[in-house]
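Field: COMPLEX_INPUT
Field: COMPONENT_COUNT = two
Field: RESIDUE_TOTAL = 694
Field: MODE = joint
Values follow.
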Amino acid sequence: MLKNGSLSLFLWMSLLSVIVFSKPATSGVFQDNLYDAYEIELNGFAEVRQGWRLKDDPYEKGRSISEGRLQLDLGRDFDWGMLRFKGDVVEDLVKSRFRSGIREFNVMLSPLDFMDLKIGRQILTWGTGDLLFVNDLFPKDWQSFFIGRDDEYLKAPSDAVKLSFFFNIANLDVIYAPVFNGSVYIDGSRLSYWNPVLARTAGRDFIFGDHERNRFFADGELALRVSKNIRGTEVALYGYRGFWKTPEGMNPVSVTLYYPELTVYGASIRSTLFGGIGNIEIGYYDSREDREGDDPFVRNSEFKVLAGFERELMRNFTGGIQYYCEWIADYHAYRRSLVAQPGKDEYRHLLTVRLTRLMMNQNLRLSFFGYYSPSDQDAYLRPKAHYKLTDQWAVEVGSNIFLGTDDHTFFGQFKDNTNAYGSVRWGF
Amino acid sequence: MKKTAIWIIGLLVAFLGVFTVSAEEATLTLDDIVQKTNLAAYYGGEDGRSEVNMTITDGQGRTRTREFVILRKDVEDGGRQKFYVYFKKPSDVRKMVFMVHKYIEKDDDRWLYLPALDLVKRIAGSDKRTSFVGSHFLYEDVSGRSPTEDEHELVETTDTMYVMKNTPKDPDSVEFSSFTMWIDKKTFIPVKIEYLDKRGKKYRLVEALKTEMVQGIPTVTQSRAQDLLSGGKTVSEFSNVKYDIGLKDSIFTERYLRKAPKAVRN
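Field: COMPLEX_OUTPUT
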């Protein structure tokens, strides 16, 4: 297996080498021809990414990430709208498999002067948090995020219809997904985690299965946003009716996870403040299957609060901080019903810091993002250096560092997964 | 006799000509020149569109290119403006949008749209003396430096140029001690701007290399910014420039960050 893997990586490296030595201009010619003949825009990248675990993890494979990737992005403009396709083929050597995935495949139109419509597979984002999400209940890929894939892959695609209405009084976005789009969570297949059933850290020895929500309409999701920009101050109200995006419920008999029903109400405000940008976002997560908070197998309702501030510290150097808190509702009921010790604290406080430094004509970007929880006594640090060698070539090195005093806390449970990675990318 | 009459008429015309020119010059105060220059450089037409091709060359001679389309709409002449910058190349910044609502009396509002994440990011940008997309042009070169930030002094008037020295009122807010502009008397386009650093040494040069008339508006179609210390430079070519195309206000909103308008896609 390993031999095959090495061979594949060798092939990917060869592919990139061919690109280096054949004149990259040829791809430009192909792109131009495609556009001239069919008005199709073609772009994308080829990338090799290799990572290593910095700690021994008895439950996982030695490599955190090892993959070759080709992304193609095709688009065409019509009089009536835009058609878009974006997909990846990946040779994943950690999982020893070849896979492909469509990230975007949608059509976008403006049937009315005050209305936009986007139908199909798409990436969706809203809210004001920086790598913290309160009212953005669109799917995430936490696994990609933790093993060091490009930031782009934190956002997983949704199959949905997005309707946007633009009125003088406010804008309204309505997003409907007929079938639930869940997040990629840490199930043990790739990263070890705290397993409450075993009351210890587990990994490939206990890969959680979940009961998929896949019934059309019955397992649909609806997300709403009303937003307005009032002289530079952006205010928004949010609503969501669907399910927890990660399986926060467990069937104690079959020991399988499932996605309990969830409704979220929230609001946000963002504006310039003290020469920077300030934002506040709040949300109430109504866990509809455990309104009393006494079901130990379903996550309780929660309040979430986020406040952030970002500004330029000096030229080409930006700093941002955020405070975030999750407050478990009906905490006493939760404590009383708890079956697997230790449980969570009533409040989970989290602080984040972002530092970004641009150097060498902005071709070198040094960045640091850190999460630190004083209540959980754990942290997750993401240092990264990205250098654009040319307009086509870029290299990146980074690390995902998990720290914690306990094995069961949000970031602390991943501490054996601490890793470092590097990548080479050719964009066209 | 006839000859003399022609001579006299000729002299009269010449005199009147000189007289009118000098009268016009006489009526132009320093403030007029400052205002006219600001309007000529940044407020052509009610709105405008231009395709920009930037070639960035660093001190070692390595080059990089940027291609983008820029839309501008004036809220008021000499005052608030809106900008929409849509990137086409290189591929890692393709479809990214940078949007600015520029104010005179307070910090600008800036947004960045990252298409891969569908993320509308508000950016903290209080320092306008930062490089624009890694080039030798600064944000302020693109969106304009408010004349109210400097003290102006007309140091020389030549046949074709006004030479104006500008000294910042708040020296700590900028990296230069002063800058001198050579302003074309006819078009009020600053054709050369020289920056002196804190020790009075010339370190930065911005020039209009080509100026053309577009819809009767004098327009810089090629400009260059040079870092005289590192030897790096950026040349910007402006093509398909159009004015007064009737850009709607709504283009400069979140709606069109997520869905680029036809005006930039074509």
